[in-house]
Amino acid sequence: MNNSGKIDPFGFREYDARWVYKKDIDDDGIVQLGKGLGTQIINHTKKNNPRIIVGQDYRSYSEHIKEKLKEGLVSTGCKIEDIGLSLSPMVYFAQFNLNSDAIAMVTASHNENGWTGVKMGIKKGLTHAPEEMKELKDITLNQKFINGEGNIKKIDDFQNVYKNDLIAKNPLNKKIKAVVACGNGTAGIFAPEILRGIGCEVIELDCELDWTFPKYNPNPEDLEMLHAISSAVKENNADIGFGFDGDGDRVGVIDDKGNEIFSDKIGLLIARNLSKDHKNSKFIVDVKSTGLYSNDKILKENKCETIYWKTGHSHIKRKVNTDNALAGFEKSGHFFF
Predict the structure, then answer these.
(1) In the chain, what are the domains?
(2) Engineered SS bond to 19: which of 25, 193, 265, 272, CB 3.0-4.6 Å?
(3) Are β-strands 240-244 and 200-205 bridged in parallel, bridged antiparallel, or unpaired?
């Protein structure tokens, strides 16, 4: 057995795993991470050959890392369904659409080049929280691996399944002119097409894929990105501007005047809209969010309750699930329905 894999233990974070590739984790380390994750999935699902959806973002080395991760997963007995170049939400969607047992998405989100990581989840709609991460770290670092025989299946064209699902469910009834900024990250091959598909006139800003991120990192909390969107909205007389992060699971919004609307306020607008049709609902927001939710007139009229909860995408996602809430909003630009 190969014991030479390098894995910095600090890469196991509260709700995902991230390392600087080669410095903190090497190829053998990634294979071991795959073995650890595969073992954990088998332990949780009680299946010898669970089905795992795997995808990756557009960094130069992400596909290679995904292959190494798959090697580890397959050695435990997992059956891999590889959907290729993906956004994190597309991988989450695939778990429902293809009814799989677990997911693993190779991405470093908006981090600088050199970083890599994995977002993972077992139960549908949930990603690893601190307990699962601690367990995964223990299995991986102590090499408590299960041996089995898995296999790999490539699923072609899943991008279109995802895009078409979003387009079919969200037609617009009025013309909206939208600036769409992707910071040269993976969202560039998704967001413009989906927004055109629902009826927007789209002005693209840095939507061509370029893993060197020539202008700035794709991060909707980054002022440089927000200023670029703001200028484009004003120049093009657009109705709205969107900025997506590297793996397309966070969005920043600029209004028609070029002002940034913080994501917690966007969450409140969405909650108000939803509350009209879904009275007595619960919403989960992270503790960094605006206090406006707790005494909002429209939410009160519709007898909706807002619960403030721990920051972090897996914390909010889990709370939405356990409390049977209608939606969750995080100030960083994550939205959960």
Answers:
(1) 9-159 (3.40.120.10), 170-261 (3.40.120.10), 267-336 (3.40.120.10)
(2) 25
(3) unpaired
The per-residue pLDDT for 333 is 93
56 and 69 Cβ atoms separated by less than 8 Å: no
For residue 202, give the amino acid letter.
V
Residue holding tokens 């279109």?
160
- The partner residues of 7 in beta bridges, in order of sequence, read 25
Q: What whole-number distance in Å separates Cα of residue 209 and Cα of residue 183?
A: 9
pLDDT of 90 strictly over 90 = yes
Among 3-7, 36-40, 101-105, 197-201, the least confident range: 3-7
Q: Count other Cβ atoms within 10 Å, centred on residue 259.
A: 12
- Bridge partners (DSSP) of residue 203 are 179
CA separation for the pair 184, 212 (Å, rounded): 8
Q: Alpha-carbon distance 243 to 222, whole Å?
A: 10
- Give residue-wise pLDDT tens across range 312-328: 888 999 999 999 999 99
Let me know: does 78 contact 38? Beta carbons within 8 Å: yes
With tokens 């509260």, the residue in question is 14
Cα 95 to Cα 61, 122, 281: the distances in Å are 24, 9, 26
**Could you tell me the CA-to-CA distances from 83 to 55, 65, 67, 71, 306 in Å, in that order?**
5, 15, 12, 16, 36
* Planar angle of CA 208, 180, 118, nearest 5 degrees: 65
Q: Is 167 exposed, middle or buried (0-12, 13-18, 19+ CB in 10 A)?
A: middle
> Which residues are CB-neighbours of 86 under 8 A, at least 6 positions away?
55, 56, 57, 94, 105, 158, 159, 186
pLDDT at 160 over 70: yes
Closest CA to 267 of 327, 181, 207: 327
pTM of the model: 0.94
Within 8 A by CB and 6+ apart from 314, the residues are 14, 15, 16, 126, 127, 128, 129
In the chain, % helix, strand, coil (3-state, to 5) comes to 40, 25, 40
Q: Which two tokens stand for residue 164?
A: 């078409």
